[in-house]
Description:
The chain is mainly beta. Helix content is about 10%, strand content about 45%. The protein has helices at about 145-155, 155-165, and strands at about 10, 20-30, 35-45, 45-50, 60-65, 65-75, 80-90, 90-95, 100-105, 115-120, 130-140. A six-stranded antiparallel β-sheet has the order 1-10-3-4-5-6, with no helix packed on it. A five-stranded antiparallel β-sheet has the order 9-8-7-2-11. A hairpin with a 3-residue loop joins strand 7 and strand 8. Helix 1 (about 145-155) packs antiparallel against helix 2. The longest helix is centred in the last third of the chain and has 8 residues, at about 145-155. The radius of gyration is 16 Å and the shape is globular. The mean pLDDT is about 80.
Amino acid sequence: FDGINDTVSxxxxxxxxxAFTFEMWLNAKEFASNGRDLFTKYSANDxxxxxxxxxxxxxxxxxxxxxxxxxxxTGITADTWYxxxxxxxxxxxxxxxxxxxxxSKTTQGNLTIGTNTLTLGFNDLATPNFNGTIDxxxxxxxxxxxxxxxxSYNLEYNKIVSQETSGGENYICQ
Length: 174
C-alpha cells in the first residue's frame, strides 16, 4: 500500500456477528497528520474501522449492539511488524498486539457489519490511504483464547489446531 491510491476490497457479506477474531500482521511506513485507515467495513454508522493515528497508535472502533466501542493501543513505530488481533466472545471486545492484551471493553449484542465489503487501506471518511504492508489476514467465527493468540504471534500453529480439533473431525477451507 503506497498511501496514495492502493486498496484491496473483499466481498465479505457473512462476517461473523456473535463472536469473532480478526487477525493480521501490519507494518506502517509512516503516520499522517489525521491518521491512516488500515481497514474498514463501515457505512451509515454501522460496521467497524481501524486506523493508525498520527501519533503512532491504533484506534479500532466496532459497532456491537448499536453502540460503538473503540479500542486503542499506543507505541506503534514505523517500519516495524506488529501482530494485531481483535476478538469478541459475545460479551468482551478485546485488542491484542504482539500477543499481549492491550485494551478491552465489556459490551453486549451482535456486531453490525455495515457494508458487505471489507476494504483494506482506505475508507471514505477523509483519512488518507494506509502506507505500509498488511499480511496474513484471518477471520475466525469465534474468539481465539489468549493462549491461541500468543501461539499465533509466536508462529506456534500446532498449538492453535490442537485446541480446536478432535480426532475424526473434518475441516474445509473455503
